[in-house]
Amino acid sequence: MNRVKNMTMGSPAKLIISFAVPLIIANLGQQMYMIVDTMIVGRGIGVEALAAVGATDWSYWLALWVIQALTQGFAISISQSFGEGSQVRIKKTVAMSIWLCLGIGIVMTVICLMAGRSLLLILQTPENIFESASAYLLTMYSGILVVMAYNMAAAVLRSFGDGKTPLIAIVIAAAANIVLDLLFVLVFRWGVTGAAVATVLAQLFAFLYCLSVLRKMELMKLVREDWRADRNIINRQCSLGLPLALQHILIAVGGMILQYAINQQGVVFIAGFTATNKIYGLLESSAISVGYAVTTYVAQNYGAGLYSRIRSGLKSSVLITGGLSVLVSCIMILGGRFVLKLFIDDASSSAAEVLDISYHYLFIMSCLLSTLYWLYAFRNTLQGLGKTFAPFVSGVMEFFARVSAAVFFTRFFGEKALFFAEPGAWMAALLVLIVVCIKSVRELPQTDRSDLR
């Protein structure tokens, strides 16, 4: 229980930062082992293998983001119940979330395995990398239940203010993934399939560690009554999780349309984008971590009726994300080319061209990174308040921005338009979120619930 953090007392900025730092390290660790995964594929197998993995990005993210959105949505009411101090409701909500994750995870696994190859065909994945891409994607889809289990366990821990356990879990997963990558890809010669198997097993180890911590918490000692279906709680969880899932489905579908446009540019262009997309996780990881901290902070204080602290928390989160974005941008602009070289086989005749494409894309995203970071500050504040419609609308805006870049602007600007698809999506979403978030926070009661007692 010493890892549980009550965020209804103390400095908002210090609480958000202290909670976010372990998550930042955890997310960076997760991104690093995914990067190592890609490095081993790119340098150990070749440019075509790198392109094959990259061609599956948006198809896999479609499933991954739905899982992350659902579990994050389910955790909102857990945080709010924690702020209220209602242990009975916490246990019941956790139990219903587990049932929902199990059912949704099974359905998603079946659908994704049936549709995986068709998705790659629709995206016109080049023939010379199609079979490798298909093998990688279907293996990743096979592990959906494992990914769902880890994300739900981590979301529950974060809702209690515990950012340390997910950090340790990712360290365990990272070490396992690297060892298994080297074994499966370079020793057993399983190709891209080996890389996918290593990633799924690493997530399993992360889940098992989180589970071992949860089982020791008094809050998680569930009894038979907790597991009985509660329609009101299930409806509440669905009302929080499903809009976020739909939002991410739209974002992913827009990305898949973008991937279709990228695939038309050939294997070298795909490989260039793949290298940068792997670093994109590093660009975004700090924003995601602060976003999780903001959601937990806002949800706990909303549950406790401490509305003045929510207003202070929003101001702090905007300043924190703005400062972080500048730091990350500088690091990537100065050191990005060196990092990108780690993904590319120097012996390849197209290595220089792939590197130029990758760095050009990375430079553009780095220059506009503050937009992405502020997006998380405003979006996660709304989610902590239990407002999921505006984030859904922001997902619609992201969808249209990406599709416009892929379908419309490429006709006038060619492949150059593809480099601005992501930053354009961030800007479109941010415009919606700023307006709605500020309005929602201003409409909160001016007097805290505790002052009325």
Structure commentary:
The chain is mainly alpha-helical and about 450 residues long. It has one domain (about 10-445). The protein has 16 helices and no strands. The radius of gyration is 21 Å and the shape is globular. The mean pLDDT is about 85.
The largest sheet is: none
Q: Mean of the pLDDT scores?
A: 86
Q: Distance between termini?
A: 29 Å
Class from secondary-structure proportions: mainly alpha
Query: N-to-C SSE series?
Result: HHHHHHHHHHHHHHHH
Total separate domains: 1
Q: What is the number of helices?
A: 16
CA-based gyration radius = 21 Å
Q: Which percent band covers the strand fraction?
A: under 5%
Task: List low-pLDDT spans.
Answer: none
Shape: globular
- Measured as a percent range, the helix fraction is over 70%
By DSSP, the count of extended strands is: 0
Summarize the structure.
This protein has 453 residues and is mainly α. The protein is built from 16 helices and no strands. The mean pLDDT is 86.
What does the secondary structure layout of this molecule look like, with pairings?
Elements: H1 12-44, H2 47-55, H3 57-84, H4 87-122, H5 127-142, H6 144-159, H7 164-187, H8 191-214, H9 224-227, H10 231-263, H11 267-304, H12 307-341, H13 351-367, H14 369-384, H15 389-413, H16 421-442
